[in-house]
Design brief:
- The chain is built from four helices and no strands.
- By secondary structure, it is mainly alpha-helical.
- The protein has one domain.
């Protein structure tokens, strides 16, 4: 996130006194204010959640099999060619 970007959206949240104290101490220990600390932490958490939905880990054996399949020469698919060359009913 660009440090010079203007912050125009307000987020409101509630915390317990213990959570508040912990966040304030951690923000101070990292040399940041609470807003920057909370926003940075939330952005990192958001990227992790979304990465879990777009990144899939596989074993070395599965990766080798996948790359082997990708490297095979293309095979002729007559039925697919016919499908792609037949005019659509929507045309």
């Amino acid at each position: 996130m660009a440090a010079t970007a203007r912050k125009g959206v307000r987020l409101n949240l509630r915390a317990t006194p213990d959570q508040n104290d912990l966040i304030r101490v951690a923000a101070e220990a990292s040399g940041r204010n609470v807003t920057d600390f909370v926003l940075d932490s939330a952005v990192v958490a958001a990227w992790r959640v979304l990465a879990d939905r777009t990144y899939f880990g596989v074993s070395a054996e599965a990766w080798d099999r996948f790359t082997e399949i990708l490297e095979r020469p293309a095979a002729a698919k007559p039925r697919l060619r016919a499908l792609m060359t037949t005019p659509s009913v929507l045309e």
